[in-house]
Amino acid sequence: MNKDHDSLIDPLTHFNSIHPLRVRYNEADMQGIVFNANYLVYADIGVTEYFRKLAEATHGPDASATSFLSSFGGDCWVRHAEVDFRGPAHADDLLSVAARVTRFGRTSFATLIHIYRGETLLSVIKLTQVWFDSASEKVAPVAPGFIAAVEAFEAVKPER
C-alpha cells in the first residue's frame, strides 16, 4: 500500500493525543460552516496539546509544553502546512483533534493532524516543523532527546 495514502486514512486509534474542541459561533460563517483558516488554528491547538501530553508522559504531570521543548535546547516552527478538507464542521460541533509525529528528518519533523466530528473525518492536516536552537534562533538538527521522547510516546513509530 502507498504510505502517503495510508497516512491519510489512519484510524483514530493510531493517535495517542486526541483533544476535544467545541466550535465557537464566531469561527463559522453565516451558514454556520467553519471558516477554512480556522482548521489551521485547530491544528495548532492539537499540536500544543500533543506537546503537553508528550511532556506529561516523559517529565511527569506538572510538566508544561513550553518547558518540555526548551529542556532539549530548542523549539520548532511550522515551515509548511497542507490542509485536505473532507467535510465541513459547523458552529457548536464537538470535534476531536488528533495529532502525531509521523517522520523525522535531520532538522525537521512531520506532524499529522486529523480533525473528526464523531467518527467522521473532516480534515487532514500535514505540517512540516523545523527545529531551531532557542539561543540563536537558527535551524538546527532535531534534538536526539526529543526524538527519543516522541518515539517512546507514539503508538506508531515515526519514520526516519
The number of helices is 4
Structural class: alpha+beta
Count all strands and give the number.
Answer: 5
Task: Sketch the topology as an H/E string, one letter per element.
Answer: HEHHEEEEH
Uncertain runs are 1-7
Order of adjacent strands in the largest pleated sheet: 1-3-4-5-2
| Mean pLDDT over the full residue set | 91
Largest sheet: 5 strands, antiparallel
Helix content: 25-40%
For the CA atoms, what is the radius of gyration? 16 Å
List the helices and strands and how they pair.
Blueprint: H1 3-8, E1 17-22, H2 38-59, H3 65-70, E2 74-85, E3 94-104, E4 108-117, E5 120-133, H4 144-153
Antiparallel strand pairs: 1-3, 2-5, 3-4, 4-5
What would your notes on this structure say?
This protein has 160 residues and is α+β, with helices and mostly antiparallel strands. Helices cover 28% and strands 33% of the residues. The protein has helices spanning 3-8, 38-59, 65-70, 144-153, and strands at 17-22, 74-85, 94-104, 108-117, 120-133. It has a 5-stranded antiparallel sheet with strand order 1-3-4-5-2, with helices on one face. The longest helix is centred in the first third of the chain and has 22 residues, at 38-59. Residues 1-7 have low confidence and may be disordered.
List keywords for this structure.
single chain, 160 residues, alpha+beta, 4 helices, 5 strands, disordered N terminus
Q: How would you summarize this macromolecular structure in one to three sentences?
A:
Helix content is 28%, strand content 33%. It is of the alpha+beta class and 160 residues long.
